[in-house]
Amino acid sequence: MSDKVMLAIKNYSKSYSEGKKAADDVTLDVCSGDIYGFIGHNGAGKSTTIRAVVGVLDFTEGEIYIDGHSVKDEPLLCKQVTAYIPDNPDLYDNLTGIQYLNFIADVFEIGAAEREERIKKYADLFEITDSLGDLISSYSHGMKQKIAIISALIHKPKLLVLDEPFVGLDPKATFTLKEIMHEMCGEGTAIFFSTHVLDVAEKLCNKVAIIKKGRIIASGTMEELTEGHSLEEAFLETDNEK
Amino acid sequence: MKSKSSLLFKTLLLSTSTRNIFRYTGEIKKKKKIIFSWIGILALCAMLTGYSLAMCIGYGKSGMADSVPVLGALIICLLALVFTFFKTNGYLFNFKEYDMLMALPFEAKTVAACKFLYMYVKSLPWYLCISIATLIGYAIYSKPAIYIYPLWIILSLFVPMIPMLIATFLGFVIAKISSGFRKNNIVQTILSLAFVIFCFSLRYIIEAVAKKGDINDTLSNISDVTAKAGRIVFPAGWFSNAIVKTGISDMLLLIGTSLLVFALVFGIMGSSYRQINSALKSHAASKNYKMTAQKKRSVVKAVAFKEFKRMTGSTVYMTNIAIGEIMAVLLGIVTLIIGFDRIIAIVTQNAPFDYAIVQPAIPFITYFFIGMMATTVCSPSLEGRNYWILQSLPVSKKDIYNGKMLFNLYLTIPFMIVSTFCLCISAKVPIITTVLYLILGVVLCMFSTAWGCVVGIKYMRLDWENEVEVIKQGAAPVIYMFPNMIFVMILAGLSIFLGTFIDHNVLAAIFMILYLALAAASYFRVMSLVKKET
Fold this sequence. Notes:
Number of strands of chain B: 0
Number of strands of chain A: 10
Shape of chain B: globular
Number of domains of chain B: 2
Radius of gyration of chain A: 18 Å
Number of helices of chain B: 24
Strand content of chain B: under 5%
Largest sheet of chain A: 6 strands, mixed
Oligomer: heterodimer
Helix content of chain A: 25-40%
Order of helices and strands of chain B: HHHHHHHHHHHHHHHHHHHHHHHH
Structural class of chain B: mainly alpha
Largest interface: A-B, 39 and 42 residues
Distance between the termini of chain B: 50 Å
Number of helices of chain A: 9
Radius of gyration of chain B: 24 Å
Strand content of chain A: 25-35%
Helix content of chain B: over 70%
Strand order of the largest sheet of chain A: 6-7-8-3-9-10
């Protein structure tokens, strides 16, 4: 695996107007080829951190760099190489699946042949090709999730950020997504994702960070963190200690 | 970047286009609804055009044809200012797909500008109806040169621009101020309501300013007032001068200033757009709840309470609903302070008649504000993605809609009573008649609630992208509001006319029975629609 840092979060903190800190001095690096799991309780600060990484949420303290560019100062350069899949994607319900995918492909200036090939590839893998001509409003939650995933893969991002990507996916789609993540990681894409499913994280990730009350309480390679135990045991132990 | 802006703009339009839904949906019911909404919108456009044309003909017949361009432009400017302000919060901030759009490589100012342009294009047909009607009126009486026609149409595209940009900028300022507060939603609602009330008083402010400039007969001369107002509302003045005097400089001023203000507003907005949205969309959980004794409510009251929380949780919903109630109470208080006769004198511009004859119209005057919008019109649609919650509950639909109606009654009746009572005291209405007017007011609220619910269920739309679509723009609010308001104006006029020879108490009783029957009919219709829905 390459050591090129694709995502560098340096002393990032996010405070609300109420004065409370949702993220406190978070620091971590995600390199090309990493599948980095971000785990923690509900409300621990995972989504807040992810939303700041993808440039959706403003933050005052610290810095976030994507491919060497500052999210604060050069947001467009960062977004150009990033794809984000939120936990509950809000897509345009009154567009058809294919209209939405074409919109995203247009935004990333993907050529016609290239987009056709990628849409076909991923739509077939997720078994959604037949439904691409239907309105997104008629899709189930899982189908919307699949469209969001395809839209994220369409421009071959260097950094893929996913917030609870397996929620709502059927077992086959979950397997497909994991395969795609492995494939992308092999091609040098950095993947940073949050999850509650520790089994998945354990099998999929080479690095993990545990966040609690906005602070990173443990991070490192899977081996460093688990020390021969399961991730679940390591998580519960770390969580109880801190 | 240019192409990305147009791509986003086109996608925003497509994402709410009923033509797109019509083309791709397989549901016949949905297609039928779309066709009916198109017919309804066309009918409303025809009504608006007809009304504007009739007004221009009135001006033309009074020999004031030259005031028609400024008058039309003034109406467009004021409507654009108020309606944009109502929509800004929902369109530019707090919108559903914010995360999706901001994670894409678009500049913040591009997203904000495209959202504005979307709002502009969506409201343009209404302004063009007014503009084309005034053009026809002007053409009939002034016989302008042939080049005036295309010039009129082109400039009409720019007339609403500056007021819309001003309203957007004010919405931005309010959002920015509110974003610094913990309870930013409440701050935003209060500031928004204050601004809307200011806008409604704008007409009198403009008149007051216009009056200062002339000593004698400004107010009595409508033409002069319109011209002076045109000088204050400068886009209207520039438009009028460009048309009437073929003023090239005015034409360039209108176009150039519109574009300049556009660039300025979105240049400024872009710098803190993400910061404002971040503050508005994320809140820290207080995590300090202590378990206390819980209250048990009936199903109907529980639904009513849920409706209350839904309304207070949304600035767009709150400002659109509460404005009528607040205006009604303000009118009542102002009337108490300055007197009923003075208010009538201001509204009728000192027309010479006995103001006591207006008394039978008091409940309708109050209802004009309070009945402007009912929560029952939008609340079925506002369920949106949460519709499953109600669907899956072990309660009857009847109880759910009774709860929704109960909330509207809780909301409207107190305001109705306070406002009507103030007006009655100020107008020195006898006690018995006052009581009858209060009862009539309550009956009007019952009608508004039930009629609103009929329209709300019949034109329910759950697949909205932005709540503004169902609060301000959907078929339901339009179909509820127009006939209701027109009917109430007719009845107000009729009550004044009949009041000159029928006892006021008898008249109030007649209207009470009429509206009670309409309210009952609407209620039964709600119940039959609810049965069908089940």
